[in-house]
Amino acid sequence: MIIGVLSMQGDIREHMNMLHSCGVEGIRVKTKEALEKVNGLIIPGGESTTITRLLDSAGLRSPLIHRANDGMPIWGTCAGMIVVSKSKINDEVYGLGLIDIEVKRNAFGRQVDSFEVDIPLDLIGAPPYRCIFIRAPVITRTGKNVRILGKYNGFAIMAKEDNILVSSFHPELTNDKRVHRYFIDMVKEYLASHGKSDT
Ligand code: GLN
């Protein structure tokens, strides 16, 4: 199994380290050729406008949409959640529309730019997960096939639709591997259902 980390900008190294500590091979994805090698992709937190502009100029928009439509698991964290959403990011930049959600950027306002809170997350199980929010987005609309997996102050902060997982917090900045492990299990299932062995 190879999991890619989209390497335009943001928390790339932290996700690579987490994959390594889960015993999974991670590669940095900057090109279409690298994207073809992976069985799952993490889009990290960072700055959504920058990440989207860079992936567009690398010609990755259509290949990414193609892999997502083919069932490959993709997990967007924080800015990555904005990138995979259906939201308009600014006048020129749109999300990839891989999951039927719309988001509000920097939703918690400047006064609480960053904070940590323990939140129970469906699918991850007990105990509650230490969620780190850094200028985080929230989900403002979910389509009917989207399952909300966690909420904070009434806002959805984690969700899934088929092979696309999103979280507005940063599991790569904790020592708790449960969300990474959950994504790795999604990739295992994808490989099994596509008749590929998990090597
Ligand atoms: N506020 C950033 C954005 O809108 C996201 C912040 C993050 O990924 N930590 O792109």
Q: How does this model look, in words?
A:
The mean pLDDT is 94. The chain has helices at residues 12-21, 32-37, 48-57, 61-69, 79-84, 178-193; strands at residues 2-6, 25-29, 40-43, 74-77, 101-104, 114-119, 129-134, 138-142, 147-152, 155-161, 164-167. By secondary structure, it is of the alpha/beta class. Strands 2-1-3-4-11-10-9 form a seven-stranded mixed β-sheet. Strands 5-8 form a two-stranded antiparallel sheet. A two-stranded antiparallel sheet has the order 6-7. Glutamine (GLN) binds next to helix 5.
Give a brief description.
With 199 residues, this protein is α/β, with parallel strands linked by helices. 29% of the residues lie in helices and 28% in strands.
